[in-house]
Amino acid sequence: MRNLVALAALLLTSCNAPKDPLPSWNETHAKQAILAFVKNAVAQFPPAERVAVFDNDGTLWVEQPLYVQLLFAASEMKALAPQHPEWRANPNFAKIIDGPPDAILALAPADQFAAGFAVHAGRTVEEYSAAASRWLAANEHPRFKKPYTQLAYQPMLELIAHLRENGFQVYSVTGAEIGFVRVANEQAFGIPRQHVIATLLKSKFESAQLQAQPDVLLIDDGDGKPSSIQNVIGRRPILAIGNSDGDLPMLQYTANGPGPRFTAIVHHDDPEREFAYDRASPVGHLDKALDAAIASAWPVLSMKNDWRRVFPNSPQ
Amino acid sequence: MRNLVALAALLLTSCNAPKDPLPSWNETHAKQAILAFVKNAVAQFPPAERVAVFDNDGTLWVEQPLYVQLLFAASEMKALAPQHPEWRANPNFAKIIDGPPDAILALAPADQFAAGFAVHAGRTVEEYSAAASRWLAANEHPRFKKPYTQLAYQPMLELIAHLRENGFQVYSVTGAEIGFVRVANEQAFGIPRQHVIATLLKSKFESAQLQAQPDVLLIDDGDGKPSSIQNVIGRRPILAIGNSDGDLPMLQYTANGPGPRFTAIVHHDDPEREFAYDRASPVGHLDKALDAAIASAWPVLSMKNDWRRVFPNSPQ
User: A13 lies in a domain?
Assistant: First the structure.
């Protein structure tokens, strides 16, 4: 009988204990700061003003050895080259077509992106999305040997869920091209298409179909991020998280509004469980934004110290 | 006792009778077609695919004698002219500044829009929105003597509510400039900012503030409407309603998808309660889209015959 009473007391206690919304975060200052901010934001802002924005590559999922959209582009360019003999006239495209699978890594960023835009050629936006979906299902990360869509960061998935439970609208804001990243966002982070803000191409409307053209409309990186956020949401976010210099204007734009704000940088300092890189890396280059975070006392989220687990189902 | 039974029966009947979701629509074919489509769409599409798009001017609210955003622009240009002596160097701007309040009506469309873009000068996006809000509160329609935000079409407000009750996401898609129409949409139609798709200007990010520039990024009219819809929503709508030739590509894009579709034109044929205009009008020019609607058997919504009431609280 005494045991039964003790058991009942135990069950009651565990029922009453609030469920930890962020179990993959260690009990560090970062976690406490996030939870305090969300509570504060709910008290001070109506739901319409609870807008949260997250960078994608390196903030919500792995970006090393190269941005996933560019790996997709290189793969598509090799596969579609026979239908596009004109591509070989571009020496950079020829390197991708005839080189090893990682040849795109050696190109300058502008040439990498040009390849990413070229592979829309001759396909409707729906056909391009279907190709992105097929590629994501068929390919895996060279080191982690898992599909990229399973390499979202578990602590961020928990944070997104916690924000939504508290009435936030969660948007992803990425420099990658929108047709690809919409598919990836839906599958990897559960973020619906209309909440994905990304680099836009001009498009052509013909015979009641849309085709993206290899002409950029708006690069959603650097100063383009606040502009794109305004174009799509029309509101200054109150929470923003990024991990590279391209995110700095978005963080400044967010931090500069009235009332409580949360702006943070993900710092890749965990070579054992993921990667370690910052000021010297061309991919996910983090230099000025790190200085700004330190100067402004924005939390710098240490992957190594603040995250108990990195990927869904990965060992702690 | 017999009376009590009869009363109870009557109450039961009225409780069981489904509430008419579109009381300001006459019992015509148009109303039946809308109700049948919504029922069908709910059965065939998951909520994420229930996307409805509405043009603004002439579809959701009055566009005669001139698009409301341009009336706002002309008013702002007159008011702000002392701070912008450079404006007088543009002969069209000078006509607006020195002419009667309706001088902007006489300009060519491109010059009307240029004035609309110019009045962002030197103001952050937040300051511009606040100015739009003040103007909408202070000005009324020359004929109806009511604020413009009270001149939404009541049948359309009911249709928007009915679509939302059935899990649709409702977007407005307008050629007017986004900073102004976001404010108008929120107040007049209850459509939140992130569901407003409109003409975009380039913007400048400086000192953590955004300012729109008088350079167009994307005109959300004609072929620009399907492109803008793809940029913001990433999905082909299943319902689209417009009222002028600038809406035709949006209607074709919508009509051309798989499964049930609803595309319609609002026809202004009611000079007594509103206005009558189509092929000859420069404002809300409806010619090719009317031919297309007839050829494709899209409903042409007659304001005179299909709408029992035009404005909220107006006599029937």
Answer: no
The count of residues in chain A is 316
* A230:B217 CB<8 A: no
Q: How far apart are CA A118 and CA A80, in angstroms?
A: 11
d(CA B148, CA B128): 18
Read off the pLDDT band of A315 (50, 70, 90).
confident
Q: Chain B residue with minimal CA distance to A196? A: B232
Q: Cβ–Cβ of B253/A227 closer than 8 Å?
A: no
Closest CA to B96 of B82, B79, B78, B110: B78
Task: Give the tens place of pLDDT for each residue, A224-271.
Answer: 999 999 999 999 999 999 999 999 999 999 999 999 999 999 999 999
Report how far apart, in Å, the C-alpha atoms of A5 and of each of A2, A13, A272 are.
5, 12, 46
Q: How many CB pairs under 8 A join A and B?
A: 76
- Reading the block at residue B214, the tokens are 């008088």
A-chain CB neighbours of B220 within 8 Å are: none
Note the pTM of the prediction, 2 decimals: 0.94
Give B47's DSSP letter.
G
B68-B175-A219 Cα angle (round to 5): 130
User: Is B74 domain-assigned?
Assistant: no
- Please write the tens of the pLDDT for every residue from B18-29: 799 999 999 999
Q: Which of A124, A194, A220 to mutate to test the interface with B (most CBs of B within 10 A)?
A: A194
**Rounded to an integer, what is the distance from CA B257 to the centroid of its chain?**
23
CA angle B177/B221/A181 to nearest 5° reads 85
Q: Which two tokens stand for residue B303?
A: 């304001």
pLDDT tops 70 at residue B123: yes
Q: How many domains does chain A have?
A: 1
Is B232 touching A (CB cutoff 8 A)? yes
Other C-beta atoms lying within 10 Å of the C-beta of residue A134: 11
Task: From chain B, pick out residues whose CB is under 8 angstroms from the CB of A218.
Answer: 217
**Cα(B119)–Cα(B114) distance, rounded to whole angstroms?**
9
- Looking at the domain assignment, is residue A134 inside a domain? no
Where are the strands (E) in chain A, listed by range? 51-54, 169-177, 196-206, 209-218, 239-242, 262-269, 276-277, 300-302
CATH number at residue A235: 3.40.50.1000
Coil, helix or strand at residue B48: helix
Average confidence (pLDDT) over A180-201 = 98
Angle between helices A248-255 and A288-296 (to 10 degrees): 20
Please check whether residue B90 lies inside any domain of the structure: no
Tokens of residue A231, six digits: 């174009």
What integer pLDDT is reported at residue B12 of this predicted model?
Answer: 56
The pLDDT of residue B82 is above 90: yes
B208 vs A: CB within 8 A? yes
Q: Which residues of A are less than 8 Å from B233 in CB distance?
A: 193-194
Rounded CA gap, A59 and B51, in Å? 30
Exposed, middle or buried: residue A11 (CB in 10 Å: 0-12, 13-18, 19+)? exposed
Domain of residue B274, residue span: 21-66+149-306
Token duo for residue A185: 């966002």
**Closest Cβ–Cβ partner in A203, A231, A235 for B200:** A231
